[in-house]
Specification:
- With about 775 residues, the chain is an alpha/beta fold.
- The protein is built from 18 helices and 31 strands.
- α1 runs antiparallel to α3 and α7 runs parallel beside α12.
- The radius of gyration is 28 Å and the shape is globular.
- It starts with 6 loop residues before the first strand and ends in a 7-residue tail after the last helix.
- InterPro entries: Peptidase_S8/S53_dom (IPR000209), Peptidase_S8/S53_dom_sf (IPR036852), Y4bN_pept_dom (IPR034074).
């Protein structure tokens, strides 16, 4: 097979972008007793005032407690409108409800609620201020909602001090600074300490040393959002297998790309030491060892991808540099210095130190998970660690590759049904990070004829936060079918031991993620100037869900209903990638690729010229892949600041599509589909459908086209649309994105040259 360069997608049409007016909420009227409604709300406000006065008496010598409470809504509201309406009534929103309707967290600087009460009276008397129609109740935040899952399971002892993570509502900077200063002084007076803190645009977390008595007192503070035990990171067990040491070709070329490994450290194993570029430390006196061996094993897959193949070929060729970022430490009763630091702070500083040392290090492998942080249906806000990864990915244009985590359910005879049977098997924090690639596990299972790739019985599943497709990719993880299905990894226990075993067998999704990191590093070696969006786009474009699947998964086709298809996606994502297809096109498979920017509430239209008879003779596998990296906000209804989507059309004039999109770009969001009914008949329907794809930032749709199924008399038209989701204030914000069109005909040797001739890049005058 000939390796050919990917082709550039011709320049898009560039319509004039327009900033649409954000829609006004039309508050729905309910049949209710207005007098009773007014009386109930006044009673609730009086209760809030009394609770607030108690806090002022208790904490007033140290800080000025905020009057923070919950507002329950009973109908869908547009976030910007509802926030503005409440602000005019003297109430500020801290946290919008991601469930709409749902509970909003708000505060008032006026404990008398004078403005709010005045408008409530006018609503009762004159039917003014319609936003009161959306309010059901105004209540304190219950204490039990502030206690995290780990702390609820493992409560503090009556005596002594423990380390806890305390999350504070993300107020304005000046208000937050004022609260933290007073709160720290109050804690000191009670023999407790703030040991560390991390404040980002999305959250504020403190690491505190605290007693049970003081914990019970601070839970009364309205500013406290959540208290939990510090996260413990999950590391999988490893199986032993002796293998002879083989030839090593290294170190890597100086221009090779790098992978930073956030893990338990990396030992100088014979197959790794020449490729270790540096150890990035949080503290200068930090040890560089690997107490568990986990990081060393992960590093071997990051460096080589398929360690078993290297052993069989007697060739360990190093093409990637490694950075060790130690974030997992040995558990001990004394809880050393690492317990003084927040996990989030340690991760942030390690990542930023790495980027400062090597700005070209763009790939960060995260084969860790927090066991009790399961993304169940009742999780309404993304986890702070996942949010932090999204912030860092956006700020530094880097890629985090995250293992989805291992489930602890024994499948017995219920495989593979057990994967989707329980919420307990859903993905773990931080695999819910929207901008990161999440990786699930598969194993190669022997049959009477050959081997097939099936889901690992120990992998976790999606969906991701707010229904995003997670995992996006799957790779070999081992687990569940005996030693023959496990993966070969470096054995850290052999380092420094005479006649030690250099390799062992391992199982866990910790070992599927580094394969994806390895592929991304190879792509970056080949395309050093491509953006992170494009590197992810290339790899996603190459992926495919295995055709042979076990159990009920075999009954779901790629053009099935969205309900059934989502079950398939929750296990496989977009499938297993093929690095050779990501690196190059060939005579039978052509990639048309493009990196671009798009102002929000605008669109691009790409014209794809194909040979006139391209769909007449051969079956065609057609796919579109889109990746983008919007800003994110944890405390907004819409976690993503921008939504993008794509549609593909045949036998349609450019002017007709342009007119349709121009009209539809002004539709009210977030649920209106951006296209008119009269062009539906021209759309090539891709799977998964638009309603599934557009929930996330990594989107792919495919279609198998039978001969003569569609017309190719006119160029295919691809629309890419960007929409504002209600909170980006920069009117000139442009969203970076990458788009790839992949066309494959396994029996058409002339496909590449035919498409290349018809899609010469147009130079814009």
């Amino acid at each position: 097979m000939v390796d050919l360069d990917h082709l550039p997608l011709p320049e898009p049409s560039l319509p004039t972008p327009r900033r649409k007016q954000r829609p006004r909420t039309k508050y729905e009227r309910f049949d209710r007793d207005n007098s009773k409604f007014q009386k109930d709300r006044l009673n609730e406000l009086q209760l809030l005032k009394k609770t607030h006065e108690k806090n002022k008496i208790k904490f007033g010598n140290y800080l000025d407690p905020r009057l923070i409470f919950k507002i329950k809504t009973n109908q869908y509201v547009y976030e910007s409108n509802f926030r503005q309406d409440l602000e005019r009534a003297g109430i500020q929103v801290l946290n919008s409800s991601t469930a709409n309707p749902g509970y909003w967290i708000a505060f008032s600087n006026d404990s008398e609620f004078k403005e709010f009460k005045m408008k409530l009276q006018k609503h009762h008397d004159d039917d003014r201020y319609k936003y009161f129609l959306a309010i059901d109740e105004i209540v304190p935040i219950p204490v039990d909602e502030k206690i995290g899952r780990s702390l609820n399971i493992d409560q503090l002892p009556e005596m002594g001090f423990e380390f806890l993570d305390v999350e504070v509502w993300r107020m304005e900077d000046s208000e937050l600074d004022q609260f933290l200063s007073g709160f720290e002084n109050w804690l000191k007076e009670n023999n407790c300490l703030i040991l560390d803190n991390l404040i980002t645009i999305n959250f504020c977390i403190l690491r505190v040393r605290i007693s049970k008595r003081v914990l019970n007192e601070i839970l009364a503070l309205n500013e406290i959002a959540l208290v939990d035990r510090p996260p413990t990171l999950e590391v999988e067990s490893l199986l032993m297998q002796p293998i002879e040491k083989e030839q090593i070709i290294g170190p890597p070329n100086e221009n090779c790309s790098s992978i930073a490994i956030l893990d338990s450290g990396i030992l100088k194993h014979p197959i790794l030491e020449d490729a270790i570029k540096d150890y990035i430390k949080f503290d200068d006196d930090e040890e560089i060892g690997d107490h568990s061996g986990h990081g060393t094993s992960v590093a071997s897959i990051c460096l080589y991808g398929d360690v078993e193949k290297c052993i069989r070929d007697s060739r360990f060729e190093q093409k990637i540099w490694l950075y060790s970022l130690k974030i997992i430490f040995k558990q001990n009763k004394n809880r050393g210095n690492e317990y003084n630091k927040l996990l989030e702070n340690r991760l942030k500083e390690l990542v930023e130190k790495t980027i400062q040392k090597d700005p070209n290090c763009k790939i960060f492998n995260v084969s860790i998970a927090i066991p009790h942080h399961i993304l169940k249906n009742d999780v309404v806000k993304n986890f702070n660690l996942a949010v932090l990864l999204d912030e860092l990915a956006k700020k530094y244009n880097i890629i985090f590759v995250i293992s989805i985590g291992n489930n602890t359910q024994l499948p017995d005879s219920n495989y593979p049904d057990h994967l989707l049977a329980l919420e307990e098997n859903r993905l773990l924090n931080p695999a819910s990070s929207a901008l990161s690639l999440t990786v699930g596990g598969i194993v190669s299972r022997l049959t009477r004829i050959d081997s097939i790739d099936v889901p690992s019985p120990i992998t976790r599943v999606g969906p991701g936060f707010k229904g995003m497709i997670k995992p996006e990719l799957v790779e070999y993880s081992g687990g569940g079918f005996g030693n023959e299905s496990d993966v070969i990894i470096a054995n850290a226990e052999s380092v420094g031991v005479i006649e030690g075993r250099p390799f062992k067998l391992g199982k866990g999704t910790s070992f599927s993620a580094p394969r994806i990191s390895h592929y991304l590093a190879l792509l970056r070696n080949q395309y050093p100037f491509y953006s992170s969006n494009m590197l992810k786009c290339l790899l996603l474009s190459s992926s495919r869900i295995p055709i042979q699947r076990p159990g009920f998964l075999s009954e779901i086709s790629e053009d099935d209903t969205e309900t059934n298809l989502m079950k398939l996606l929750n296990v496989y994502g977009y499938g297993k990638p093929d690095i050779s297809k990501a690196l190059y096109s060939d005579n039978y498979r052509v990639l048309l690729i493009k990196e671009s920017k798009l102002q929000i509430n605008s669109y691009h239209i790409y014209e794809i010229n194909l040979p006139q008879d391209v769909f007449d003779e051969y079956e065609t596998l057609l796919s579109i892949t889109l990746t983008y990296d919007p800003p994110i906000r944890k405390n907004r209804i819409n976690y993503l600041g921008v939504a993008m989507e794509f549609h593909l059309y045949h036998n349609l004039d450019m002017d007709d599509l342009n007119s349709s999109l121009s009209a539809d770009i002004d539709k009210e969001y977030p649920d209106d589909e951006i296209q008119k009914i009269d062009i539906k008949k021209n759309e090539i329907m891709l799977k998964p459908g638009i309603n599934i794809r557009k929930k996330g930032v990594h989107q792919k749709g495919i279609r198998i086209i039978k001969p003569h199924e569609i017309s190719s008399n006119k160029p295919l038209l691809l629309s890419v649309v960007s929409r504002d989701l209600g909170w980006i204030e920069n009117v000139s914000y442009e969203q970076d994105y990458s788009i790839i069109v992949a066309i494959e005909q396994v029996n058409n040797l002339k496909l590449y040259n035919a498409i290349k001739l018809r899609n010469r890049v147009r130079v814009r005058s």
